């Protein structure tokens, strides 16, 4: 069966990665969390006190950063490794969320991450989520989605997610972080978050995760089977 690239962009915490994981699992595709890569870079910068205004320091740091995704045998999901260490939980913490959009503004960081992401998606059969996937990383992706949801709903969902991991953070603090990241992400000079012209909008405010996954799987199937009459007859 034909393999496609599915690009999911949108605001923070509206369900991009959960939907992407579900869709990838149904289709047998690889899920790639591009945000995790920016978070891993941020963690490295934080630990090594890299000055984000010093281009030479940034370039040198990027040379020393190796980000990989390794499947966890128990969950079957990709986990993020930074220079050989599993950082999957650390990069989701609030102190990283508070710095990540500043790091993601840096041109050198974006150029390096985009190049790595393009390599990861070269063979197709991938679902990648982020902010510039349908516009910059894979402008030719066969299916592009742009996700959104009400800010209160997004903050509530993120709060629950953090609580499930034992981190108790107030709703106001989470909402401020989401708003601030959305502001920086949409207004930055280098590949800002914008809806690709050919992206389909998915508002998740009143939907369940299962409904979102089903909708995206159906959209993907129509692209996969597009023009392939043999497949259509088989269905
Ligand atoms: O999951 P959440 O929406 O909180 O964020 P994320 O997808 O983990 O991304 C964290 C941050 O990385 C975003 O707020 C952006 O600043 C940056 N990012 C980006 O600039 N480009 C991407 N393709 C993905 C993430
Ligand atoms: O990747 P992004 O930051 O856009 O959002 P996410 O991390 O996939 O979703 C944030 C939380 O919302 C996760 O705990 C999801 O399970 C939950 N959620 C959702 O994504 N969609 C719904 N309709 C309901 C809850």
TrEMBL record:
Belongs to the cytidylate kinase family. Type 1 subfamily. One of its GO terms (cellular component) is cytoplasm. Its main location: cytoplasm. Keywords: ATP-binding, Cytoplasm, Kinase, Nucleotide-binding, Transferase. Pfam families: Cytidylate_kin (PF02224). The gene is cmk. Its EC number is 2.7.4.25. ATP binds at residues 10-18. One of its GO terms (biological process) is pyrimidine nucleotide metabolic process. NCBIfam families: cmk (TIGR00017). It catalyses: dCMP + ATP = dCDP + ADP; CMP + ATP = CDP + ADP. It is an enzyme of class 2 (transferase). This is Cytidylate kinase. The keyword ATP-binding applies. The keyword Nucleus does not apply. It comes from Fulvivirga lutea. Residues 6-219 form the Cytidylate kinase domain. One of its GO terms (molecular function) is ATP binding.
């Amino acid at each position: 069966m034909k393999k496609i690239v599915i690009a999911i962009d949108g605001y923070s915490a509206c369900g991009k990665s959960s939907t992407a994981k579900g869709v990838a699992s149904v289709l047998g595709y690889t899920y790639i969390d591009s945000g995790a890569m920016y978070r891993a870079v941020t963690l490295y910068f934080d630990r090594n006190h890299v000055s984000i205004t010093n281009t030479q320091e940034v370039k040198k740091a990027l040379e020393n950063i190796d980000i990989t995704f390794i499947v966890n045998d128990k969950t079957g999901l990709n986990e993020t490794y930074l220079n050989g260490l599993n950082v999957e939980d650390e990069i989701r913490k609030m102190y990283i969320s508070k710095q990540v959009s500043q790091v993601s503004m840096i041109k050198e960081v974006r150029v390096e991450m985009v190049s790595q992401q393009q390599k990861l998606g070269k063979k197709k059969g991938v679902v990648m989520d982020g902010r510039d996937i349908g516009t910059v990383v894979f402008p030719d992706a066969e299916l592009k989605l742009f996700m959104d949801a009400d800010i209160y709903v997004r903050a509530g969902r993120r709060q629950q997610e953090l609580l499930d991991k034992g981190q108790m953070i107030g709703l106001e603090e989470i909402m401020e972080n989401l708003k601030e990241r959305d502001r920086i992400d949409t207004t930055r000079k280098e590949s800002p978050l914008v809806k690709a012209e050919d992206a389909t909008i998915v508002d998740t405010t009143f939907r369940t995760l299962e409904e979102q996954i089903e909708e995206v799987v159906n959209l993907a199937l129509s692209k996969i089977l597009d023009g392939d009459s043999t497949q259509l007859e088989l269905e």
